[in-house]
Amino acid sequence: TGEISLVGGVPDPGYKTSVGGESALMATIVFSAKSLGQGTISFTNESEILSNLNNINILTIKRGYDVAIRVKPSPTPISAPVTPAPSATPTSGTVTRVFVTSTTYNGNLGGLTGADLKCQARADSAKLGGIWKAWLSSSTDGSPSTRFIKNTGPYKNVLGNVIANDWSDLTDQVLTSSLAANENGSLQNITEPWNVWTNTWTSGSIYDTASNLTCNNWTSDSSSITGRGGASWKTDVRWTASEISGQACNTLKRLYCFEQPSKTIPSNKGDGNKDGKVNLIDMSVLHTDYNKDAQKGQTIRAGIDMNDDGIINLHDYSALLKRLSELGVIKGYKI
Fold first, then answer.
1. How far apart, in whole angstroms, are the C-alpha atoms of residue 321 and residue 335?
2. What are the pLDDT digits (tens) for 128-177?
3. Which string of DSSP letters, residue by residue, matches 44-64?
């Protein structure tokens, strides 16, 4: 517990709050923790650093920040490769990584599929590997509770900090630490009143179903309709469901991106046309069925539903590529 005072002059004509479209850094404060626990950083209205040359308080937005102080995890030792036993669900040792995008988007995300692609692109740009989906809900394409593989292991940001211990912990309204780290491991600057498109409750289910409250299911950048979201610096329910009303769909927000835990693919998967072989013809079958959803009454071929989730998507494409590479049908694909 304590107070820090910053003393100094104010340049004429004043501080710039942004430089080249990015928020400007005015000061950096480094803290040394004496013990583990929780802490809160806040600003006071009386701080002299908030007054201009005419002694007028220029602070229009101030925001506290909750921090968790814990021991940095030890590096994971490298061990010899082990072939896992087949399992229907991820093991408790699986780590699911999470980040908030460094880039911003208006409400026309191209639906949930387009949002997933944006998450995948950010992960690929940071060379994170894996398959990624956006924490986002719509009335046409579902929500994290229906689209995500629910991990039984911990959720961590790309810095290795634990966000939640498992899916149940992730969806219990309180996070262990915030999702403020982007795909590159940098902390995103706070943006008011919230900064991430979600339309999702802490349970992972959809928040609003009306198209005029979901940027027309994330296909519109109109200023006349809105979308809901959360604040990446919060660890309570507001991380995904802000109490502040929706924002116009032409405003720019970020996305939460969640890695999807890999499953062991049964050896009989990949034979889409049931000819007893797994080859490039099956990849053609996958392309034919791509984006089909059995829950919507659409017929899919079970052989190419690699993870048995009833949807033919990027997970199945990646898994089939891996299977074709293992069989020597294609070369040069890095598993």
1. 9
2. 988 899 999 999 999 999 999 898 899 999 999 999 999 999 999 899 99
3. -TT-GGGB-TT--B-------
- Dump pLDDT digits (tens) for 39-97: 666 666 555 555 555 556 555 555 555 555 655 444 444 343 333 333 334 334 488 99
In the chain, the amino acid numbered 293 is D
Is residue 13 reached through a cis peptide bond, with omega within 30 degrees of 0 on the bond before it? yes
The full DSSP string for 81-100 is: --PPPP-SS--TTPPEEEEE
* pLDDT above 90: residue 202: yes
CA 44 to chain centre: 32
Q: How far is CA 310 from CA 91, 269, 295, 301, 315, in A?
A: 21, 14, 7, 9, 11
- Spell out a b/e string for 160-187, using b for 16 or more CB atoms within 10 Å of the CB, else e: ebbbbbbbeebbeeebbbbbbbbbeeee
Contacts of 149 (CB under 8 A, 6+ apart): 90, 260, 261, 263, 307, 309
Q: Which residues fall within 8 angstroms of residue 121, CB to CB, at 6 or more apart?
A: none
Half-sphere exposure of 190 (CA within 13 A, CB side): 12
Structure tokens at 91: 């093991």
Structure tokens at 117: 């692609």
pTM for the whole structure: 0.57
The H or E element containing residue 18 is strand 18-19
Helix (H) or strand (E) holding 156: strand 155-157
Return phi, psi of residue 218, to 5°: 65, 40
Rounded percentage of the chain residues whose pLDDT exceeds 70: 68
Question: What whole-number distance in Å separates Cα of residue 203 and Cα of residue 247?
Answer: 22
Indicate if the pLDDT at residue 278 is higher than 50: yes
